[in-house]
Amino acid sequence: MDATFALTLIEAVLILLGIAISKAVRLISPLHDSCKDVGDSIPTVSSPSNIIVAPCATKYDVFLSFRGEDTRDTFSSYLYEALCKANIHTFMDHKLHKGDHISLILLKTIEESEISLIIFSKDYASSTWCMDELVHIMKCKDKYGRLVVPIFYNVDPSDIRKQNGRFGDGFAKVKQRFKHDPKRVQEWENALIKSASLSGWDLKNIRPEPKLVKKIVKDILSKLNCKLSFHVEGLVGIDDQIQEVEELLSEARIVGIWGMGGIGKTTLASAVFDRLRAEFEASCFVEDVRQLLEKKGGLNGLQEKCLKELLKDEEINTYNLRSDFVRRRLHRKKILLVLDDVDNFTKAEGLIKACDWFGEESRIIITSRNMQVLRNTSASASPATYHVPGLDPHHALHLFSLSAFKQNQPFENYLELSKWVVDYCQGNPLALKVLGGYLQGRGKEVWESALAKLNHAFYSDIFEVLRLSFDGLDDDQKDVFLDLAFFFERRMVDVSELCKSLICRY
After folding, report:
1. I need a surface site. Which of 308, 345, 487, 503 has the fewest CB within 10 A?
2. What does the alpha-carbon distance between residue 206 and residue 316 come to, in Å, rounded to a whole number?
3. Are 480 and 9 in contact (CB under 8 A)?
4. C-alpha angle 433/449/494, rounded to 5°?
């Protein structure tokens, strides 16, 4: 028996005993006297300081502001194409505008965009349409917290702030035309000063243009991931985990993400994939490899799916893998590939070995419940492994509260009950979300009844996921776990201490 076997033993015991048999999972004991006010129902109003205020609805990730006659057919189009290719939902107005009044639809679009990219060109300020766009962009920054990123395309930021040079000449003509409307002109001047003072990108410092475009796309992806991660359910307490996996990827070609069912392996891999994909020439996220291999087509179908996505070639098939030309195509690319939920190395061996053909700076992430799968992944590169921990009590309570109360913290008279649930789930995100969703909107009597039942039976939705780890074991290992489970149930042994001793011993 080795350390991996001992760790798997812990997991199986948690599954078989429903987390509720031992101190390792800290059973829910009879409820405290402080929880006996059964007649109470969940209040419908809570303290405003605890409520999560939903952000303004967004329709686009990025709004491009530019003067059409200057950059529509050059830089703006290249940037728009690169943003779309990176799956960044971008709005670009393809019309050439005439007149002095911006449309209400365009103003609404600015409000519905997370980030506004302002492409300052030499004649940008000569367009009243552009200037009104800019004013509204800066208002949305102040009012809704939208991000604004200036791009200085062959124009100096100081010329924008001070309205000097050719940029200033164009703006001077507009000011003259609207000297009867000093308030509007002042708004334009203020917007120019504020926007040009923001941190942005200067073409003079980064050439050629494709290099600048690539850097901008990477930066926008990073900003979106950082900004939007707070809006995505299930990403509580994951920031440190993302950083640790990224550090491993900076050194290792293959990184394995390992942990029990429901602990957040797929969520973590997805978050890392979304943050890094812009840095690679091709990327592919294959969800649930275990189930895909069991379907018709199996490994061949999975290989074909990956090849088509990585090489952007719909005509390719698994037979082409025998071709040296296809292998050379893969070798020329810097690839990011995620294989999610690989439970059997033998079945996935052909796919994993094909990763050795990828370009030198390529990276592969594999998630699995089985450490042995990760050990066997590659003959040419030993994978680094990251063991996904359970959430700490603070983050666990936060995640549970989002599911059960739709806010950061529990209602005050449900705090103790919520802590019992958090204690029971032992930091497992799946368990926290499933139980939170089940208890959401229910009265205390239902809560107490449900929690009492958890002493005797495991909630089915959680059990179906966690039992996969047990089903993946061989018959001898299953027999060992069943014997241990029976022993622990009869003797109430402190499983956590025993398993720690097993790890130290083996």
Report:
1. 487
2. 37
3. yes
4. 70
Domains of the chain: 3-52+392-505 (no CATH), 60-222 (3.40.50.10140), 238-387 (3.40.50.300)
Q: What is the DSSP letter of 51?
A: B
Residue 147 bridge partners (DSSP): 115
Interatomic CA distance for residues 418 and 78, integer angstroms: 52
Q: What are the tens digits of pLDDT across the range 168-214?
A: 999 999 888 888 999 999 999 999 999 998 889 988 887 788 889 99
Q: Cis omega (within 30 of 0) on the bond before 208?
A: yes
Cα–Cα distance between 175 and 173 in angstroms, integer? 5
Q: Is 114 a catalytic residue?
A: no
Q: In whole angstroms, what is the distance from residue 159 CA to residue 23 CA?
A: 68
Distances (CA, A) of 468 to 21, 46, 125, 154, 495: 20, 39, 62, 58, 21
Cα(141)–Cα(102) distance, rounded to whole angstroms?
A: 18
What tokens appear for 492 in the block? Answer: 């109430």
Please report where in the chains the tokens 């300052």 appear, as a residue.
Answer: 120
CA distance linking residue 228 with residue 464, whole number of Å: 30
CB 189 within 8 A of CB 158: no
Catalytic residue among 133, 244, 247, 304: 133
Residue 273, phi-psi category: left (phi > 0), alpha (psi -120 to 50), beta (remainder): alpha
pLDDT tens digit sequence for 27-86: 333 333 333 333 333 333 233 333 223 345 678 999 999 988 888 888 999 999 999 988
How far is Cα 116 from Cα 137, in angstroms, rounded to an integer?
A: 7
pTM above 0.85, yes or no: no
Mind giving me the DSSP string for 52-79?
PPPPPP-SEEEEEE--HHHHTTTHHHHH
